[in-house]
Design goal:
The complex is a heterodimer of chains A (592) and B (282).
Chain A lengths: L10 H26 L3 E5 L3 E3 L4 E9 L15 E15 L2 E14 L3 E5 L3 E4 L2 E4 L3 E6 L26 E7 L10 E9 L8 E3 L6 E8 L2 E6 L2 E14 L3 E5 L3 E4 L8 E4 L3 E5 L15 E9 L3 E3 L4 E11 L15 E14 L4 E13 L3 E5 L3 E6 L4 E6 L3 E6 L46 H29 L1 H23 L4 H16 L8 H10 L4 H19 L4 H25 L1
Parallel strand pairs in A: 2-9, 21-28
Antiparallel strand pairs in A: 1-3, 3-5, 4-5, 6-9, 7-8, 10-11, 11-15, 12-17, 13-15, 14-15, 16-19, 17-18, 20-22, 22-24, 23-24, 25-28, 26-27
Helix pairs in contact in A: 2-3, 3-4, 3-7, 4-6, 4-7, 5-6, 6-7
Chain B lengths: L7 H32 L1 H5 L4 H13 L3 H13 L5 H13 L3 H14 L4 H12 L12 H12 L2 H24 L4 H31 L2 E4 L3 E5 L10 E6 L3 E8 L2 E6 L3 E6 L3 E3 L4
Antiparallel strand pairs in B: 1-4, 1-7, 2-3, 4-5, 5-6
Helix pairs in contact in B: 1-3, 3-4, 4-5, 5-6, 6-7, 9-10
The chains are: A alpha+beta (592), B alpha+beta (282).
């Protein structure tokens, strides 16, 4: 087994090394303490410029405040501030809030020579911090130096170790556009170092502007202050929608941080544009189009037919706010019917402007045959480059309209001297005069009970007729049935007739009762004794009570026929006989 | 100095002149009042009888003021008058205004009330020929054609009355068949023929009523409408096809703000409720 090797360094050398390390550590700590005690720093991008050039002053204010106070540049005497931009970065690491404000000033020297940027003071937490004064030498004449990229200053610089390596800026190409005139908002990212992750571009809200068409995102290299940058631009076309000063909010770029580092947020300064109203003297048909446009018209058919719809296409092509273009007024087309249009818009963002086509399609229907010419369609717009209103017009379109198929000449030759009638044009038939009775249509019959009663009554009539006819037929064919059906009626007839002919009611009662029983039993009863009749009734299984009543009645009749009785008794007998026949009839029919 | 006597001839002349002047003044007042009525038919229509309101609307139409005419006819219909002449004239006014959808809708309503009016049929055909969506509305099959012919000639009310008349004839023939056995052959043939017509008529009526009740006809009145696959707009459902003003459809289902429609050829979809109007209000 091998023994461990001793240190190859002597103890003296080790002591010297420790001494140097402790010294360096102390020095670094001292430096960081000094830096921590100076949260405000100022620097310029260069110390020597020529007259006419500008210098960039960057003031960085760090602290633990969310709202970073602005530096005081009131002591600045030899320079004029021609542009400013501000960015703020706030981060929370391990629960501790740190913030940093970066104020960038573009300074124009007021004279030549050795100038001084006086100390910049910032009040933080009730204490005033000042930077060191910075010396700038302004040489006479032009040339020399390196201009910062773009027209505006970098609006911010990345914090920490990205300081000066990453910054963004924004600008517009025209600060005093006309209402509706296209301007280009350019966002630039200056990238001196590479970073990992996809940055998130958060454009301004662009309130008071129409359209937000991104035109291009070019990349190119640039050098500023001796530093090489990869510049990425995002160009957005905007169309002012209101007159007056309009502020464009800050754009933000968020670069995602790593596992242990916060996101880096870069933010541009707000911009403002002063939107000018369009000049006076706009033509009557001007509807607000601003840019440069051309107009074309076309008809879907070269030869049409009456009442056959065709498509009239009106195409406006050019640079401007294509999506808001109104349809130009159409010329008067007598004998043509026009229907609402369908609109299609094609946007083709080009290098520095929004280019596109807006197409209006109308259905047009000719009402009469003949040779027509669709007149030119005019379109008026304001050309901001020429600073005047222009009117362009399309070409006229010749069109031949033939009679339609439904309106083809109707040939009605009646005689050799007569000519056929040629229908020149077809139109809808005219309106009707006021009718004599402007009645309201009635309700649906399907829900009317009377209507369905009208269906039921004939059916009942048919049924009744059928029953009646069947009854009549049976009477004719079935004698027994006929006698039974008429027995009661005939018995009552006998009782009524004989009662009116005389006071004696016994004989008719006898005939009526025996006749009824003969009809119902289908047996002759004349000549039968009372006993024989009773036997016959029992054979017919008649109710014994009724049989007793029959027997009693017949006995009364026998007595009455051969002995004098009161008239009232005779009447009572007739009544009893009628009641007896009724009761018998009920029993017979009940059995049937 | 005495006043000259006026002869009887002179007096009668003066009296006739005075009557003529009074008639002239009354005429001017009438014309002025009529012109005022024409200018604002909708507001005055509430004070006019339906007949007078239609007269005013007709005058506006003849004067070329189709918008006023349409408003006048709509006001008459708002009175509760459902007359085919009103709907026909209203269809004409909308046609002149270029509103094909409402023109066809009102022609259809007039056609529903009087299918045999050739003016209505002609103008309806002209308006249909100008629609963008040329739909094949001809139903297939002999039975469908028979139903269509019946619909082309009879209203539902007339068909129900005709069915009742056929029923009365059949019942009369049945009574004759019962009472007169010697004519039973002829009455039997008559009953068979009438019974066949009645059966076809009843089935046609039932079919028409069922269709109008459950699949009522409707017309697209929006200029263009996206027909989606569900009761929602293009953000929610796929747009299956487009329809344009004047397209004739059938209403299949109603939901709040959305209607499911069907076309010939199994095409179905959903449109906003305001995009269609029923030919016959339920």
């Amino acid at each position: 087994m091998r023994s461990p090797q001793p240190w190859p360094i002597s103890s003296k050398f080790f002591a010297q090394f420790i001494t140097v390390a402790v010294f360096l550590t102390f020095l670094a700590s001292f430096t960081s303490i000094v830096a921590a005690q100076s949260p405000v720093t100022a620097k310029v991008d260069r110390n020597t410029i020529t007259a006419g050039e500008q210098v960039t002053l960057t003031v960085t204010v760090g602290g633990d405040l969310i709202n970073i106070p602005r530096p005081d540049l009131s002591q600045l005497a030899d320079f004029r501030v021609v542009g400013t931009s501000t960015s703020t970065q706030v981060s929370i690491i391990n629960g501790k809030l740190t913030s940093q404000g970066i104020f960038v000033y573009r300074l124009q020297p007021l004279r030549e020579g050795k100038l001084t940027i006086p100390p910049v003071s910032v009040e933080l937490g009730g204490q005033i911090y000042q930077t060191e004064a910075l010396a700038i030498e302004v040489l006479a004449g032009s040339g020399g130096g390196v201009s910062p990229p773009g027209q505006d200053f970098p609006s911010t610089e990345a914090p920490g170790n990205l300081e000066g390596q990453l910054f963004v800026e924004a600008e517009v190409d025209n600060r005093i556009p006309y209402l509706g005139q296209q301007i280009i908002y350019t966002f630039r990212l200056y990238q001196g170092v590479n970073f990992i992750g996809q940055p998130d571009y958060q454009p301004p809200s662009f309130t008071n502007f129409w359209g937000q068409n991104v035109l291009a995102q070019p990349h190119y290299n640039s050098t500023a202050d001796g530093q090489d940058y990869l510049v990425t631009e995002i160009q957005t076309a905007l169309f002012p929608a209101n007159i007056g000063e309009i502020t464009i909010d800050s754009a933000r770029l968020v670069i995602p941080g790593g596992f242990f580092e916060p996101d880096v947020v870069l933010q541009t300064d707000p911009l403002s544009v002063d939107v000018q109203p369009l000049p006076e003297g706009a033509p009557e048909d001007f509807k607000g189009a601003v840019g440069q446009f051309e107009i074309r018209t076309e008809l879907s058919e070269a030869v049409g037919q009456v009442n056959e719809p065709m498509t009239l296409g009106i195409e406006i092509e050019g640079a401007g706010n294509i999506e808001t273009l109104s349809e130009p007024p159409l010329p008067n087309l007598p004998n043509w019917r026009l229907f609402d249009s369908q609109v299609n818009t094609t946007i083709d963002p080009q290098e520095d402007r929004v280019y596109g086509t807006r197409r209006f399609e109308r259905l047009v229907v000719p009402g009469q045959p003949g040779e027509y010419t669709i007149p030119p369609v005019e379109f008026t717009y304001f050309d901001p480059q020429a600073d005047r209103y222009r009117t362009v017009s399309s070409d006229s379109i010749p069109i031949t309209i033939r009679p339609g198929d439904t309106e083809s000449p109707a040939l009605t030759v009646v005689g050799p001297d007569q000519e056929s009638i040629t229908l020149i044009a077809g139109d809808i038939r005219p309106i009707k005069p006021v009718p004599a009775n402007l009645r309201t249509a009635g309700s649906r019959l399907l829900f009317n009970p009377f209507y369905w009663a009208c269906w039921l009554l004939p059916a009942l009539a048919v049924g009744g007729t059928w029953v009646w006819q069947r009854q009549r037929q049976r009477f004719a064919e079935d004698v027994v049935y006929a006698r039974r059906q008429t027995a009661r009626r005939r018995a009552f007839q006998i009782l009524n007739e004989d009662q009116t002919s005389g006071p004696d009611g016994y004989a008719p009662a006898h005939r009526a009762l025996l006749g009824y029983l003969s009809d119902m039993l289908n047996r002759p009863t004349v000549g039968l004794t009372t006993g024989g009749l009773i036997a016959l009734l029992r054979e017919a299984e008649l109710d014994p009570i009724l049989i007793d009543r029959i027997q009693s009645t017949l006995e009364k009749i026998e007595i009455g026929r051969f002995a004098p009785v009161e008239e009232t008794e005779a009447q009572a007998l007739v009544t009893d006989t009628r009641q007896l026949i009724d009761d018998l009839d009920k029993q017979f029919r009940g059995r049937a | 100095m005495s006043l000259p006597r006026i002869s009887s001839n002179t007096y009668s002349f003066l009296r006739s002149t005075r009557h003529a002047f009074r008639a002239l003044v009354m005429s001017i007042v009438f014309i002025l009042s009529m012109s005022t009525i024409v200018a604002a038919p909708v507001t005055l229509a509430q004070d006019l009888s339906p007949t007078d309101a239609m007269l005013v609307a007709n005058q506006a139409y003849e004067a070329g003021d189709y918008a006023e005419a349409a408003a006048g006819y709509e006001a008459v219909i708002a009175f509760g008058v459902h007359n085919k002449d009103i709907y026909y004239n209203l269809g004409n006014a909308y046609f002149k205004l270029g509103d094909l959808g409402r023109a066809i809708l009102n022609y259809r309503r007039a056609h529903y009330l009087d299918p045999r009016d050739s003016d209505v049929s002609t103008n309806l055909a002209i308006a249909q020929a100008q629609t963008i969506d040329q739909l094949d509305a001809t139903p297939a099959g002999a039975w469908a054609n028979l139903v269509q012919i019946a619909e082309e000639w009879l209203t539902l009310r007339e068909a129900t009355i005709l069915a009742l008349i056929l029923w009365l004839i059949i019942c009369g023939l049945a009574i004759l068949w019962i009472l007169l056995p010697s004519l039973r052959r002829w009455t039997g043939i008559g009953m068979a023929i009438m019974g066949l017509f009645l059966a076809i008529g009843l089935i046609s009526i039932a079919n028409r009523y069922y269709t109008e009740r459950f699949y009522p006809p409707a017309v697209i009145v929006a200029q263009q409408v996206d027909v989606t696959g569900g009761p929602g707009d293009a953000d929610q459902y796929l747009v299956e096809f487009d329809l344009h003003s004047g397209a004739e459809v059938r209403l299949v289902e109603s939901r709040p703000d959305w209607r499911r429609i069907a076309l010939s050829g199994d095409l179905q979809g959903w449109v906003p409720a305001g995009a269609i109007e029923l030919v016959v209000n339920q």
